[in-house]
# Entry
Amino acid sequence: MKVKYTLSVKPDVVSNGEILRAWLPYPRHDIPRQTNVKFIKASQSDYIMSNDVTTHSSIYMEKEAEAGKATVFSVEYEFTSQGEWIDLENFYDTVTSDYPSNIADYTKERKPHIQFSETLKRLTDSVTQEANGTKETVKSIYLYIVENYPWASALEYSTIKNIPEYAIENKKGDCGQVALLLIAMLRYKDIPTRWQSGWMMHPGEVNLHDWAEYYIKGAGWIPIDVSFGRADNENSPLPRRFFLSGIDSYRLYINNDYSGSFFPKKKYPRSETVDFQRGEVETDSGNLYFDKWNYNMQVEYR
# Structure
C-alpha cells in the first residue's frame, strides 16, 4: 500500500507567524506483519521520525502559520502488510503464570482503563465458569463480547473515566472500547494481552481501528479482533473463528500500546488520551483539539 497522509490546520486558528508542531501517524517497523516500510517524502524537510522508540509511531514536523491560510503537513510512504491466522489446535493448552517479566507486564492492571473492579471480576468469572484452560478462557470471553456488545459510535475516549466499565454499563462499544474490555477481562484471568491499533485499510472502508494480541506459551503473541468477529452470520460463518486467532492483511500498524509517549515529547496534554491515529498538533501556547484541524488518508493498492 502507498499512503499520502495530510493534516491541515484551519486558517487563522493561531496568530500569524506562530509555530505549529504536528505529529502525524507513521507505520511501525517492529511489527512482523508489516514490512518494507519506505519513506517517500514529507512536506517539511526537517522532520523527525520516532523510529519505534515510543508507543506511538509518528513523524514530527514544524511549520509557521500564515494569516488567512491553512497550515498543511503531509507525509507519503509505502509498506507491505500481510495477514496471519494461528491454528490454536496446534498448541498444548499449558496454563501458566510463569511468564518472563516483559510478558508478565501484560497481565497487570493499568489505571484508569484496565482495573480489576468487582464488576469486571464478577462478569469475567461468570463468562468463564465452564472454561477449562487458557484457550477456552480466551474463546469464552471473545464470544461473550462478540455476541453481546454491538458496535456503537463512541464519545471521545478522553471523556470516559474507565472504558471497559463504560462498555459493560452500556452493553455496546466501538472497536477500542471492546478491545479494552477484552484486554481487561483476559488480564484478570492472568492471560497476557496487549493493545494494537492504527487503521483498517480495506478498499472503500479506510478508517481508524483498534484490536489486540494475547499470549499463549508455545504460540507467542496471537492477534484477535473482536470487532471483525462480529461479522459472523449464517451465510458467512468464518469471521468469528478467524478473528479469534487471526487478522487480515488490510492493516496499518501505528501503536503497540495505548496512552503512551511521543517523540519529540509533547508539551501539552494530547487531544486523544488513549489512541493515536489522526495526529496531534500544538503550539507554544497550547494543544489544538480536533475541531481546529482536518486529516485525510489517500491509499493506493498494489
Notes: The chain has a mean pLDDT of 95. DSSP finds seven helices and 15 strands in the chain.
